[in-house]
Amino acid sequence: MLDAVTNLVRQGWRNTLSIYYANTPIWRLLKSGALAFLGVFLWAGGNLFLSYLPGARIIDYVIAYGVLVFFYGPFTHLVIIPLVIRWRKRRGGLRNKLAKRMSKINLTFFILLVLVVGTYAPGFMFLSFDVASGGSNINPELGCVDRGEVIECELTEAEGVGQVVVSSGERTLVTVEERPYGFEVRKDEMVEVVGQKSYVVEIRDEDGEMQRRFSRSAPP
């Protein structure tokens, strides 16, 4: 049983390598397109998930993987692999030795890059999503202005709003229960995640049910 599993794993690895090193133009384009699509999917999906759970740091690495694989994947299959195949055809020499280890070097470098970018994530990787509960007729607009140390916000079209709750991480910063539903948020009170401060604005109805959720990043 163990031998069968081992053989299956080895065969799967051989098949993966054969696809990885497939070097015809159509294969290169197919692999590059698939990785670019995967990158966009993980980048957008990670940002959407992060709008519901802004404190989930593991999602930062998923987003970093998506952004990097969008660029690094096509670069690998359009540039690096064709170069490695040419070097492998040379007998002896430094290039031949390097080519035999290039797949491991390339993968290791990519993983390290994901860890670094995920840990020190630049702001351009993150999107702001406005999430509404299904069937809600409450559709306010949130306008915010950066005043340096504080951010001033106000709701418009606030019919049906009963309460506004502003939080950062697990900390509730402001609760507003009266019109005009304006508030200020101090940047030094926000939770910082991977070098970026963010806050969430929940719009609740008169029964206290969340109807809309705004996720925002604070300007540096």
Automatic annotation (TrEMBL):
Keyword Transmembrane helix recorded: yes
Chain ranges passing through the membrane: 29-50, 62-85, 105-129
Keywords of this entry: Membrane, Transmembrane, Transmembrane helix
Protein name per UniProt: Uncharacterized protein
Protein source organism: Halorutilus salinus
Record lineage: Archaea, Methanobacteriati, Methanobacteriota, Stenosarchaea group, Halobacteria
